[in-house]
Amino acid sequence: MKIIAEKINGTRKRVAQAIQERDAAFIQNLAREQAAVSHTAWVDANAGTAPQREPDDLIWLVETIQSATDKPIALDSANPKALEAAIKVVKTKPMINSISLEPGRRDIFPIVAEHDCPTVALASGEKGLPKTQEECLDNIARLLEKTRSMGIRDSNLYVDPLAMTIGSGIQNGLIFFDSVREIRRRFPEVHITCGLSNISFGLPARTYINRVFLALSMQAGMDCAICDPNNHDIQTTILATELLLAKDKHCLNYTRAFRAGVFNKPV
Amino acid sequence: MSQELIDLVVDMREDEAVKLAEKLLDEGAEPLSLLDDCRTALGIIGDRFAAGECFVPELILAGEMLRQIGAMVKPRLAAGEAGEQKKLGRIVFGTVEGDIHDIAKDIVVFMLDINGFEVMDLGVDVPVARFVEAVKEFKPQIVGLSGFLTLAYDPMKNTVQALADAGLRDSVKIMIGGGQMDDQVAAYAKADAYGKDAMAAVTLSKGWVGAN
Fold it and tell me: Cβ contacts (< 8 Å) between A10 and chain B: which residues?
């Protein structure tokens, strides 16, 4: 299980302030604590600022994160100019977050193709979020036609079927698990990811929903998640689920995590 | 007024609420009073939502109950009475150009609708010119701009500017909302207010049409 560590996101108030004030120590701390978790594969960097400022802000974020950790960065923007600017300063091959069939994301495909980057591929279509499972799978099939025609390898894609909140439709969990299974079956090379907390939007006590959703999604075939890697519930759920799905040889990750104190209740 | 009906709707007892409404109508209750009860119940639910005691799926269920009871009431209204269900006001709503997010927008439109507004939903990725056209033709008191991404800041600003250029700015109040929006973005876009969720949109709108 790979985690795209989500906390350095300019749409969070405190991070926005740190970007504005060029508070490097704050960003470095967030980068360090997220990178310290072994499942963290990428540290996401989202400047979340107005388009004119975004290239400069994203470059600053990348350089600041790189001064704290060697983990690769997920460049999170819908703005090709910001992505192109930031890709020049990354030390290791970044992930691009994200491409989709939305018209506004068209110019991101060539960047992914040119740099041979892993990339999040959203299942949204030209006219918005998929309304049905069929539309979701159809969008993904058409997206893959496009990426394949541009020489982007399936194994570089982290497909996000876009989990809809369970609060607005009680079938949305089942639809998501089915979609994950169907993507696995039809496109065995791609990875599957999602923003973990969307499922529980609008509901109370969200952590219980999120962690069981994570376990069930992993069982269906999801192998990546965009989430907070330092969340105790998420960490422990990943360890236990990988163990139960035979992804932890000799249970070593689990027992090592125990000895490292990962299962101790957070204070 | 039926306190029992209000309580059933507030307690999310869908089947019982619908049955009671049916029974009350059969017994000759004033059809419009049932709708008033539903609105009273929705007001209570809205307050609970704002206080964090009630949640999105319950808002949706409450709206569902109101729809069912509304459908029952409608055929029993005398021709003239239908007019008495006066709408509080007209609202043009849409997700701005370049943004295609609709989940939260749909919830807001739905809540505005069941709270008595007539809403023209323009959908997602709505070009600036389409908003101008809709304001001219529908003559709303309020315009709602939705956007999830930071990329929506400028289209929001452009939409407000276009309404000003068309001489329509003073005829409407403009509210914005969505994932990355806040009061600062509202100021940047020169909108009148930011609303953090569906109930905030209802409260703002009621305030603007003097219906609070």
Answer: 150
* Interface subset of A 66-125, CB within 8 angstroms of B: 78-79, 102-104, 124
* Domain ranges within chain B, ordered by starting residue: 3-82, 89-208
One digit per residue, the tens of pLDDT, for chain A of length 267 reads 999 999 999 988 899 999 999 999 999 999 999 999 999 999 999 998 878 899 999 999 999 999 999 999 999 999 999 999 999 999 999 999 999 998 889 999 999 999 999 999 999 998 888 888 999 999 999 999 999 999 999 999 999 999 988 988 899 999 999 999 999 999 999 999 999 999 998 899 999 999 999 999 999 999 999 999 999 999 999 999 999 999 999 999 999 999 999 999 877
Output the CATH code of domain B3-82.
1.10.1240.10
Residues of A in contact with B107 (CB under 8 A): 168
CATH topology of domain A101-227: TIM Barrel (3.20.20)
**Which chain A residues have a beta carbon less than 8 Å from that of B52?**
204
**Range B89-208 has CATH code 3.40.50.280:** yes
Residue A48 in contact with partner chain B when CB distance is under 8 A: yes
Task: Give me the residue spans of the domains in chain A.
Answer: 16-92, 101-227, 231-267
User: Which pTM was predicted?
Assistant: 0.81
pLDDT class for B80, splitting at 50, 70, 90?
low
CA distance A184 to A179: 8
What is this model's ipTM?
0.72
Cβ burial, residue B7 (10 Å; 0-12/13-18/19+)? middle
User: Alpha-carbon distance A147 to A153, whole Å?
Assistant: 7
Query: Is B89-208 in the same CATH topology as B3-82?
Result: no
Report yes or no: A121 and A159 within 8 Å, Cβ to Cβ. yes
